[in-house]
Specification:
The protein has two domains: about 55 residues, DNA polymerase, domain 1 (Orthogonal Bundle), CATH 1.10.150; about 280 residues, TIM Barrel. About 35% of the residues lie in helices and about 20% in strands. It is built from twelve helices and twelve strands. The two termini are about 20 Å apart.
Length: about 350
């Protein structure tokens, strides 16, 4: 399907204003629409307050309001995790996850339809890349779950760009989405409550550091030696650990902000004492936090989640080295909540 209409969530307020004035409408109508979709979280143009019906009809002819069509919608048995596989107008697919905690509501957002980087343990990487998605297709995932939460008098508290895709392989659209979501004239989401995760595309880490953004940076590390990491994350052959860690140190020095390192714990692969000591040495003296999570099983990877004893020993080594770390709870195993798994389930890989 060829997309011809401008997509509303792709537009900045300035761009929307230009469209509005080009059809003979006053500029303030653009602000009404912009506030309607972001501040009011309206589910359609019809539901935006204060717009004349004639204008709503005109805008419906001119603009596309939604690119997301739910294909699969799953809720975990504990009701804490909901995952949706969305179909885009051209048939590409993205997955979005909503995770509920005691005081937080976190949406895990996709930044590409699929991924080309081929991390061996990741279902998205196993399926390959369909295409980059637009800033609006990123933003609409956020607003979909914001609207769902408002039905229960709740709202999103955190966003993590850790779904399908490598955010820094779609850098300009991701940063445009961040700017849209944090725009005080619209959704006004706090930048410090957003985290972008990368497998380690060094030039983009350097570019992101220069932005001086308040958005948090996470790096998917998963191994502390080149020998192991390049078997798990092919990108390591292009940007080995010495280059990656230097970029991370430079980021910390330039921004004075902490980096999170992500580590999927895989039994007898990257949960060994040797990897723990190597990780402690690698991160010594850096302003960092390591997030551990037991591996989410995927049908394309034979590894299994680490056993509790091995996890405890691994963390003990880091604790003794003074490296802050947290063991995260796996969410939504019963609904294939790991990124890329619903696309596998739908049989489109």
């Amino acid at each position: 399907m060829k997309i011809t209409k401008p997509f509303l969530f792709d537009l900045t307020l300035k761009e929307l204003t230009e469209i509005m004035t080009s059809i003979g409408e006053p500029a303030y109508r653009a602000k009404q629409v912009y506030e309607g979709i972001y501040k009011q979280a309206s589910a359609s143009l019809d539901k935006i307050n204060g717009l004349p019906k004639e204008l709503k009809n005109k805008l419906s002819e001119l603009l596309s309001f939604s690119h997301l069509t739910p294909q699969l919608d799953k809720l975990s048995t504990d009701n804490h995790t909901r995952k949706i596989l969305f179909k885009l107008p051209d048939g590409a697919q993205v997955e979005t996850v909503l995770m509920g905690y005691t005081t937080r509501r976190t949406a895990c957002i996709s930044t590409q339809a699929g991924c080309a980087l081929g991390c061996t343990f990741c279902a998205t990487g196993q399926g390959g890349l369909q295409r980059n998605i637009s800033s609006g297709e990123i933003v609409e995932q956020v607003m979909f779950f914001e609207r769902e939460l408002r039905k229960k008098n709740e709202k999103l508290t955190n966003l993590v760009f850790m779904g399908m895709g490598e955010p820094f392989a779609n850098y300009s659209e991701v940063m445009k989405a961040v700017n849209t979501l944090t725009d005080p004239a619209g959704f006004n989401f706090g930048a410090r409550r957003i985290t972008i995760s990368t497998v380690g595309i060094v030039p983009m880490i350097e570019k992101f550091a220069a932005e001086q953004s308040q958005v948090n940076l996470a790096v998917s590390l998963h191994a502390a030696t080149d020998e192991l990491r390049q078997t798990m994350l092919p990108i390591n052959k292009r940007y080995p650990l010495d280059v990656l860690i230097k970029a991370c140190r430079d980021y910390i020095n330039k921004t004075r902000r902490r980096i999170s390192f992500e580590w999927a714990l895989i039994d007898d692969i990257n949960d060994t004492p040797g990897q723990a000591h190597a990780l402690a040495n690698l991160l010594q003296g850096m302003l960092v936090h390591v997030n551990f999570i037991p591996l989410n099983p995927t049908r394309g990877y034979a590894g299994h989640e680490s056993k509790q004893k091995r996890i405890a020993k691994f963390r003990e080594i880091l604790d003794k080295a003074g490296i802050q770390n947290t063991l995260r709870i796996r969410r939504g195993i019963d609904i294939n909540a790991g990124c890329g798994q619903l696309r596998q389930e739908a049989g489109t890989d």
